[in-house]
Amino acid sequence: MPILLFGSRHLDLITDKKTTTIRKLWKKPLTQGDRLHCYWNLVSKEREKLFEAEVTEVDVIQFSDLIKNDDLAREEGFKDASELETEFRKMYPDTTDESLFQVIRFHKLPMDEWEGAKINEKAMVTKRADILFDIGKFDKSVMCYAAALKIDPDDVYLLNRKGDNLSRLGKFHEALECYDQALQIEPDNEYVWNNKAIALLNSNRPEDALKASNRAMDINDENVLVLYWRGFIFEMLGRFNDALQCYDKLLNLNPHDLDAWNAKGNLLSQIDRAEEALECYDRSLELCLEDESDASTWNRKGNALMELNRFEEAVECYQKALSLEHDNEIFLSNKGVALMELDRFEDAAECFRKVLILNPDNEDAQILMDECLENL
């Protein structure tokens, strides 16, 4: 029973586009008609069955010829034959120009023709899609969700997730088609309505986004995720008081929501209510002061203090942000500006010098450093 293990590079297996693989010649070579049992070979050493297949053709080729064949390399998932050569020499360290490889072509078999254990193919593909989505490989995960939808076209979870993928890829029109299809099946799904609102907002259609958000609110006006994005929609429409009401209602429901405290603080800063903004940032920092992700909150608090001309305190905030993200050029620049306000031009110039080391094309940092040097 020949077993083939595939890595995550071979996502085309899920979409049925990949029907070829290249392996070093085995002691007992494959022949036409052989049955293959194909698995994912996960890093955790767990193996997950993909499918069974029947070998339709086997060609044997010398390595010296294989590494000249770009077409075969692309079928195996590589950019070209040069990339294949590099990877195969790592996989097969004893390979010489005369080493023989088998080019195996196969046909995926329907599950009712399998010899071994059957699988839940939809669950397997969805799991792979979810993993890829969670690590930010949206171009690959959308392929997997599309493959799972071929198995079950009316699965609202899959339609919603595919829409989320497409939104993250900037394909908002296609994302909206997914959400609309999902809402035809579940018209009272508040999460899909909210995701549709986000896609419309990102498509620069805030009025339509608000209509979608209204539908979500009609279903559940205490959904904190809906309230969070509804606040952003109101901000885009310039309806700042309505946005603040959303954030206040959200924080009444969940006083520990860091994103909501930050969103409210950002809005208050935007409408020149810096003292109130500081209170929001302080609340956010109190909730998870040791979390590295709060470097941006320290930076925003510094910005609010700058607006109040409290430059010493602003420098302290920027320094705390930099203690969490040492090479953040934005934080360094902000600290430099605050130091300039304190006439500490030498220290400020050092900040801008570090920015230029990180990004030599930062023209603002160059101008500000020159100004500092003129005042030394």
Written description of the protein model:
- The chain is α+β, with helices and mostly antiparallel strands and 376 residues long.
- Among the domains are: 3-119, Roll (Sulfate adenylyltransferase), CATH 3.10.400.10; 120-186, Serine Threonine Protein Phosphatase 5, Tetratricopeptide repeat, CATH 1.25.40; 188-249, Serine Threonine Protein Phosphatase 5, Tetratricopeptide repeat (Alpha Horseshoe), CATH 1.25.40.10.
- It has 18 helices and 5 strands.
- The protein has helices at residues 63-66, 70-75, 81-91, 121-134, 138-151, 156-168, 172-185, 190-202, 206-219, 224-236, 240-253, 258-270, 274-287, 295-307, 311-324, 329-341, 345-358, 363-374, and strands at residues 3-6, 20-24, 35-41, 47-62, 100-108.
- A 5-stranded mixed beta sheet has the order 1-3-4-5-2.
- Helix 8 runs antiparallel to helix 9 and helix 11 (240-253) runs antiparallel to helix 12.
- The model has no long low-confidence stretch (mean pLDDT 89).
The count of DSSP E runs of length 2 or more, i.e. the number of strands, is 5
Overall form: flat
Q: Specify Rg, calculated over alpha carbons.
A: 28 Å
* Alpha-beta classification: alpha+beta
What is the CATH class designation of the domain at 3-119?
Answer: Alpha Beta
